[in-house]
Design a protein that fits this description.
Number of strands: 23
Shape: elongated
Structural class: mainly beta
Strand order of the largest sheet: 6-7-8-9-10-2-3-4-5-15-14-13-12-23
Order of helices and strands: EEEEEEEEEEEEEEEEEEEEEEE
Number of domains: 2
Strand content: over 45%
Radius of gyration: 20 Å
Number of helices: 0
Length: 292
C-alpha cells in the first residue's frame, strides 16, 4: 500500500497559494530535448515546469508576484521570461481534477479555452532544454483547491511554506526506506538536497530532490526519480547498514552506516541543467527505517 510522506522547505518571499476562490491559468508547449514546458499560476504565483519521462525528471521555477487577472509576467532572469495575456475563444471544457491518491475526484470544473499571446521564452540552465513561442493555446478556470473535495490543482501545487524539511512530496513504497538530506538553513542563495530510497520485495525506488532559492522572489525545485531492481538497494535486517547502486540519472554507489548516520561513497545525481550533485559525505545526515 502507498503511504504519503510530506514535508516542507522555506522559500523566503514566496507565500502559500491559500485555498479556494481564485482562477488558475495554464498552458503547455513542447520544448527541446524531449522536455515539456508547462506554465501554471496559483494566485499571484507562476510555476514554470520543465519535465520529461512522465514527470520523473524535471524542474519547477516558482516566481512570486507574477500573475494577475488574465495576464502573466514572470521574469526568470537569464532563463527567460513568460509575458502573456489570455485571449478567450468563447469555448469551454469540463475537466475532472486528479485526486490526491490518483484517478479523478468525480468533481468537474469548467475551464475557458483560448490563447496566451505575447512572449514565451525559456532557456534551461546549460541548455538542457529551450522553448520559445509567441502564442500557445491554454485555459483559465477555478482552482481545484477547495473547489473539489480531495482534489489537488497540481502535483507541484504551490511553493512549500515555512519549515526546514527538504521534501516536497514523496511516495514511500514497501518494507524499508532510507532518507538522506543535506543540512542547511533557509535563506536566499541556499540549496538543499534530499535522497529517498524505498524498497519492496521486487523493486527499489530512488527519488532525489533539490531546492534552491536564488532570489527573494524566485525558487527552484528539481527532481529525479527512477525505479530499479530490488538488488540495487540491499540492507541488513538490523537496519544498521545498507548499500545502494541506483541507475541513471544516478551514478556511483553509496553505503549507509547507522553509526556514522550518513551515506559514504561516490553516489551522485544529475538534475536537469546542473552538473552531477554529490549525495554523500559529512554535509548529509541519513537514516534507514522499516516501513510499518
Amino acid at each position: 500500500m502507498l503511504a504519503a510522506v510530506a514535508g516542507l522547505l522555506a522559500f523566503p518571499g514566496l507565500a502559500s497559494a491559500g485555498s479556494a476562490g481564485y482562477e488558475v491559468m495554464s498552458f503547455r508547449l513542447q520544448a527541446s530535448n524531449g522536455y515539456t514546458l508547462q506554465v501554471k499560476t496559483e494566485r499571484s504565483q507562476t510555476l514554470v515546469s520543465a519535465w520529461k519521462a512522465d514527470r520523473r525528471i524535471g524542474s519547477t521555477y516558482f516566481v512570486q508576484g507574477s500573475a494577475a487577472g488574465s495576464a502573466i509576467d514572470a521574469d526568470l532572469g537569464p532563463l527567460g521570461r513568460i509575458d502573456v495575456e489570455f485571449e478567450p475563444s468563447g469555448r469551454g471544457i469540463l475537466v475532472s481534477p486528479p485526486g490526491r491518491w490518483g484517478g479523478t475526484t468525480g468533481c468537474r470544473i469548467r475551464r475557458r479555452l483560448g490563447t496566451f499571446t505575447g512572449e514565451i521564452a525559456f532557456h534551461g540552465e546549460n541548455g538542457y532544454t529551450t522553448a520559445e513561442a509567441a502564442s500557445v493555446p491554454g485555459s483559465i478556470g477555478p482552482s481545484a483547491r477547495g473547489h473539489c473535495d480531495g482534489a489537488s490543482a497540481s502535483s507541484s501545487g504551490t511553493a512549500p511554506a515555512a519549515a526546514r524539511r527538504q521534501v516536497e512530496r514523496v511516495w514511500v513504497v514497501g518494507d524499508a526506506t532510507l532518507m538522506s538530506r543535506s543540512s542547511s538553513s533557509a535563506g536566499v542563495g541556499i540549496g538543499a538536497t534530499l535522497l529517498l530510497v524505498s524498497a519492496d520485495r521486487a523493486s527499489a525506488y530512488f527519488s532525489a530532490y533539490r531546492i534552491e532559492t536564488p532570489g527573494p522572489q524566485i525558487a527552484i525545485s528539481r527532481r529525479a526519480e527512477v525505479r530499479d531492481s530490488r538488488s540495487s538497494f540491499s540492507y541488513r535486517r538490523t537496519m544498521r547498514s545498507a548499500l545502494i547502486r541506483p541507475p541513471a540519472p544516478f551514478a556511483g554507489e553509496a553505503t549507509y552506516s547507522e553509526r556514522r548516520g550518513r551515506l559514504d561513497g561516490s553516489l551522485t545525481v544529475e538534475f536537469p541543467g546542473l552538473p552531477p550533485q554529490s549525495l554523500t559525505g559529512s554535509d548529509f545526515e541519513a537514516r534507514l527505517r522499516p516501513v510499518r
